[in-house]
Each structure stands twice: as structure tokens, then as C-alpha cells.
Design goal:
alpha/beta; Rossmann fold; 4 helices; four-stranded parallel β-sheet
């Protein structure tokens, strides 16, 4: 993959332009002032900006509609794409969920599926408990029994741990 010029992608519907439901590829919403101001600042700084939208995936005619909208807002017809490449520095999007690189850790909680991350944390803790249980049982058999019960989804016994656990 060749290195392309760095750029920032900004989603169109719901980010650059107001979106309240699909009204056809010819329809463009009113500009959203805060993000338009940020994009203008990027452009002034010399940072290339591309409008990144699924709207053009199946309808190339929408590219010109969006470029004309951008010309009106920014004084320049920005490139419009639905393809990521290695030059994309960031993507400003209302549906994207930030994930920490090389870890899979969710950095934002705006996911409709955020609770799935909690499930993965529970699974990770279960593995740690399963690994720790034999060692814990040597030090405190009662606590080891509680860990085994939890791992097997059984109620814990009511026996008090002599170590205050």
C-alpha cells in the first residue's frame, strides 16, 4: 500500500449537514455551524479534508451534489469519498466508536453495543479468577471455594473466611 497525503475525513449526513431521515441523494441538510467552523480551521491550516460518506457508495451523482454543497460552505469543492486509505488521519463521524489501536479497548461509550465490551471484561475476569483459584485455595481454602462457586455460577457458601474475605 502506498503512502498517500494525510487527510481528515468528515462525515456528511448528521455531522456536516443536518440529517433527520433519508430524503433522497439530492437532498442536503443545513450546515451544522460548529463543525463547519472546525473544518474551515483545518482548511486554513493547510490540512486536507475529505467528505467521507456512504451516500456516494451506490450513487456517484451524489458526489457532485455534495461537492456543490461544500463549495457553498467552504469556498472550495472538497473531495468526496467512501473509501479509507492509509492517509486518513482521523474520521469525524456520528456513528464511529473510538477503539484503542492494537488493544481492542473501547475508548468511547457511544456504541449501541457498548455492553458487549462489559461482557468481554467479565470473560477476562473469569479467566483471571480461574487462573488464580488454585493459588488462592492454598492460602485460603474458603476464598478458593467462593471463586470456584462463582466460576460455576453457584451460590457461595455462607462459611466465614478466617482471613476476613
Amino acid at each position: 500500500m502506498s503512502k498517500t497525503r494525510p487527510w481528515v475525513g468528515v462525515d456528511f449526513d448528521g455531522v456536516l449537514a443536518h440529517y433527520d431521515g433519508w430524503k433522497g441523494w439530492q437532498h442536503t441538510g443545513e450546515p451544522i455551524p460548529g463543525i463547519v467552523k472546525r473544518v474551515k480551521a483545518l482548511l486554513v491550516s493547510g490540512t486536507p479534508v475529505k467528505i467521507f460518506t456512504a451516500r456516494v457508495a451506490e450513487n456517484t451523482e451524489a458526489v457532485e451534489v455534495i461537492r456543490n454543497w461544500a463549495q457553498t460552505q467552504f469556498g472550495v469543492a472538497l473531495e468526496v469519498t467512501n473509501v479509507k486509505d492509509d492517509g486518513m488521519l482521523e474520521l469525524w463521524d456520528d456513528r464511529a466508536v473510538a477503539i484503542e489501536r492494537n488493544t481492542g479497548r473501547v475508548l468511547s461509550n457511544n456504541s449501541r453495543f457498548y455492553d458487549l465490551n462489559a461482557e468481554s471484561e467479565i470473560a477476562r475476569l473469569r479467566v483471571l479468577c480461574a487462573e488464580a483459584e488454585p493459588l488462592v485455595s492454598v492460602v485460603c481454602p474458603t476464598l478458593g471455594e467462593r471463586i470456584r462457586a462463582a466460576l460455576n455460577h453457584e451460590p457461595a457458601t455462607s462459611v466465614d473466611c478466617p482471613h476476613g474475605q
